[in-house]
Amino acid sequence: MDLQLQGKVALVTGGGRGVGRGICLRLAEEGAKVVVNDYHEQRAQRVAAEIRERGGQALPVRADITDLEQVRAMVKAAEETFGPVDILVNNAGIPTRDPGAEAKSGWEDFAQTHPESWKSVLDLNVYGTLNCTHSVLQPMIERRQGKIISIMSEAGRLGEAKLAAYSAGKAAILGFSKAIARELGKHCINVNVVALGAVDAKEISFEQLDDATKERVSKLFKAYPIGRGLQRLSRASDIADAVAFLASDRAQYITGQVLGLSGGFAMQ
Questions:
Q1: Residues designated as active site
Q2: Cα pseudo-dihedral 27, 29, 33, 38, rounded to 10
Q3: What is the CA radius of gyration of the chain?
Q4: pLDDT value for 101
């Protein structure tokens, strides 16, 4: 299926690795000009180089999306290089730890958490999404076209014990997206959300795993019906395919929706 993204300008936050990288590569394969954003400049540069090596067009931009001025500058750079942003993918959602910071799993009862940890999660998921969306909207409204796709977690729909602040931040993305979808429909701008469950970043087949990892993953499969059948968790390519579809006019009549790309973890 030709998604007709040739020449479209796509901005992907957190595009320097994992799911974000997969989305950047997939949109570039479809002919989009991709602005690869990441908090770490080298990550953005590596993915942009990959795209160029494959014959695509890409612009790496280092920006902290919790800082509105940096976001404005990033969007200006995108416009000066490629033109107005047609597709915004709000993908960044896991705070970056400062070098030398004490490593923590992030899974803690809310009563044991520190307010600073809430702030980093909420700033990135809530203000990061608001900053990027607000910065690309006016040109979209003027041109009466645009696609905004935000990546959230099923934790935002269902709640996840020991990830209370994270669940709150992801839930905010959903509520915000539904609200602006109602506002922006009259301008022919589509706003949708993709909700993720566990993602296999390494994409190693089940047969290649060691016995201990097989046992752990098998327990996870109980929560992912299609994962049990396919013998795998979701991959960046699964998410990238969904985003590419929602970014295209094949999804022209879809707005204000959340697509659960979590293997049946949540069914609603």
A1: 166
A2: 60
A3: 18
A4: 41
pLDDT in tens, 99-140: 334 444 568 999 999 998 999 999 999 999 999 999 999 999
pTM of the model: 0.94
Residue pair 15/51 in contact (Cβ under 8 Å)? The answer is no
Q: Token pair 């934790």 is at which residue?
A: 155
Quick check: 243 and 149 in contact, CB under 8 A? yes
pLDDT in tens, 167-193: 999 999 999 999 999 999 999 999 999
Identity at 199, one-letter amino acid code = V
Give the CA dihedral 184, 186, 190, 193, nearest 10 degrees: 50
Q: What angle do CA 34, 53, 239 make, to 5 degrees?
A: 50
Which secondary-structure segment (H or E) carries 96?
none
- What residue has token string 């809310």? 110
Domains of the chain: 9-96+104-199+235-261 (3.40.50.720), 205-233 (no CATH)
Sign of torsion over alpha carbons 180, 182, 187, 192: positive
